[in-house]
Amino acid sequence: MKNLYELNSLTNREIMEILDQAKKFKLGKKCDLLKGKKIINIFFEPSTRTHYSFITAEQNLQMEVTNFNVESSSIKKGESLYDTLKTFEMIGFDAAVLRHPAKNYFKILAGVKIPILSGGDGTGSHPTQSLLDLYTIREEFGEFTGLKIAIVGDIRHSRVAHTNIKVMKKLGMEVYISGPKDFDDNSSEYIEFERVVREMDIIMLLRVQYERHGYSMVFDQKEYNDKYGLNSEKLKLMKKNAIIMHPGPFNRGTELTDEVVECKKSRILQQMTNGVFVRMACLKRSFTEGE
Ligand code: CP
Questions:
Q1: Which of 65, 66, 103, 185 is most buried, most CB within 10 Å of its CB?
Q2: 247 lines ligand 1 (CB under 6 A)
């Protein structure tokens, strides 16, 4: 069995194997290896894309799917995360998907003997989001080496940014960050947004995560969009083959305007679709032999 908590421990080859498997699934390959396996989706934080694309991936693999309800569970009586996961192992679940607000939550779960796939750990990692981002980039450009990406926005609070910066550099991409300096945590080289628009192959916009930091924006929506967001005017300044990505959910009118979401350069909707096939590949990997 294999857990999937973060991507640092995966080699480039292992990452490529997941992307290759996801491509096979997208092209229609069937797999009954996981048919009838019981899986539980445990989300302690809100989610639409991750939660429901995992459900879809599990259903595509003919798994038996259960969704955990935190509010009606013994978590409310003080049960620990470890005891909750161990309970699911002991009552017969074969795997779990887990999103939790605590960074590195998985460090206390070593005693759980079923595979756990992370749907995000606080501001730590979001491995399946990163993998679907990589899938979308490879689908567009065919390779990673030498591509220039800027991740723009609330870097400091973004598990997507932190995961992507490391893995994309490992794969040979040039990774920059941009946006309000308050969100710059020195996790990569900072460049001004004017350069982002004109020079990048990929512009990855991030949502301002008001719920994580209660940050009272010094900008209103329009001011943020003028300084750090994309709109129809800035689309015209981008490189011919450049694309726009966003992990979602997005704040329309802030980091991007309505006309950007489904414009020709946007791959935001494809990212959502690709997430299903990448998660199918991650689930299959979890049931293959090895640590
Ligand atoms: N991108 C992402 O993690 O979205 P959700 O929070 O909707 O799962």
A1: 65
A2: yes
pLDDT exceeds 90 at position 10: yes
Atom of ligand 1 nearest to the CA of 50: 8
Is 172 in contact with 144 (CB distance < 8 Å)? yes
For residues 236 and 224, what is the distance between their CA atoms, to the nearest angstrom?
Answer: 19
Ligand 1 neighbourhood includes 127 CB (under 6 angstroms): no
pLDDT 10s digits, 104-156: 999 999 999 999 999 999 999 999 999 999 999 999 999 999 999 999 999 99
The answer to pTM > 0.70 is yes
CA angle 124-96-161, nearest 5°?
20
Partner residues linked to 202 by β-bridges? 149, 243
The burial class, CB within 10 Å (0-12 / 13-18 / 19+), for 190 is: middle
Question: What ranges in 40-122 are assigned the alpha helix state H?
Answer: 49-60, 81-90
- Among protein residues, the one with the nearest Cα to ligand 1's atom 6 is 47
Does residue 48 have its Cβ closer than 6 Å to ligand 1?
A: yes
pLDDT of residue 289: 73
Q: Could you tell me how far CA 210 lies from the centroid of its own chain? A: 18
* Distance from Cα 100 to the centre of ligand 1, integer Å: 13
182-226: per-residue pLDDT in tens?
888 999 999 999 999 999 999 999 987 766 555 555 678 899 999
Q: Is 47 in the pocket of ligand 1 (CB under 6 A)?
A: yes
- pLDDT per position as a tens digit, 15-52: 999 999 999 999 999 999 999 999 999 999 999 999 99
Say yes or no: CB of residue 49 within 6 Å of ligand 1.
yes
Q: Whose CA is nearest to atom 4 of ligand 1?
A: 49
How far apart are the C-alpha atoms of 198 and 47, rounded to whole Å? 33
In ligand 1, which atom is closest to the CA atom of 126? Answer: 3
Count CA atoms within 13 Å of residue 64 on its CB side: 6
